[in-house]
Write a structure and sequence with these properties.
This protein has 187 residues and is mostly helical. It contains eight helices and no strands. Helix 1 packs across helix 3 and helix 5 crosses helix 8. About 4% of the residues have low confidence.
């Protein structure tokens, strides 16, 4: 690579390193973007890689100005390779822009009317469940909501399996009756 200047040393023919570096960047920008444009898919990508390359080149501004050109293009090629690796590992080509297709995506949400109807049905079911006798409700919920089998419910409540069957049957009869009054099927 290029030679590093000693601290405080100014390169020959360049009055100030910050000013000469800025001039170099301005002079090389168009050529670098043209070089990158032939290697990337869009103008925006070329601009991005050029910007990234100049930012990385700042680390080498103390080097001799003659080395900046070759450093810049080596940095740009490395930046392109880094982008290609990231695109490959992140499967960038498989990504779909939500900005382009946001209005074409189906909504998983229910329509407002459907949400209200669902909430009303849930309220009716809850009211029907709360209307069951306490012991009957407890056994029904252990079986249907908690997922316990009849023998597990029997053991949990300290009753026989036959008693669990009777309580579940009673709960179903009462729920069917109360829900049918509202035009709903039993759960």
């Amino acid at each position: 690579m290029g030679q590093r200047l000693a601290e405080g040393e100014q390169p020959e023919g360049f009055p100030g390193s910050a000013t000469s570096f800025d001039s170099f960047v301005r002079e090389q920008r168009g050529a670098l973007i043209g070089f990158l444009r032939r290697r990337v898919s869009s103008e925006e990508d070329a601009q991005d890689v050029a910007q990234e390359s100049f930012v990385r080149l700042i680390r080498y501004r103390e080097y001799a100005p003659e080395s900046w050109g070759s450093l810049l293009y080596r940095i740009a090629i490395n930046a392109l390779n880094d982008r290609a690796r990231r695109a490959h590992t992140h499967h960038t080509a498989d990504h779909v822009s939500l900005d382009d297709n946001v209005f074409g995506l189906p909504s998983m949400d229910q329509a407002h009317d459907q949400q209200i109807e669902t909430q009303q049905e849930l309220a009716r079911v809850q009211k029907a469940l709360l209307g069951l006798p306490t012991r009957c409700r407890e056994i029904y919920l252990l079986n249907r909501i908690e997922g316990m089998s009849y023998p597990e419910v029997a053991k949990h409540c300290g009753i026989s399996v036959k008693a669990v069957e009777k309580q579940i049957s009673k709960a179903l009869v009462l729920l069917r009756k109360r829900l049918s009054e509202h035009g709903m099927e039993a759960i």
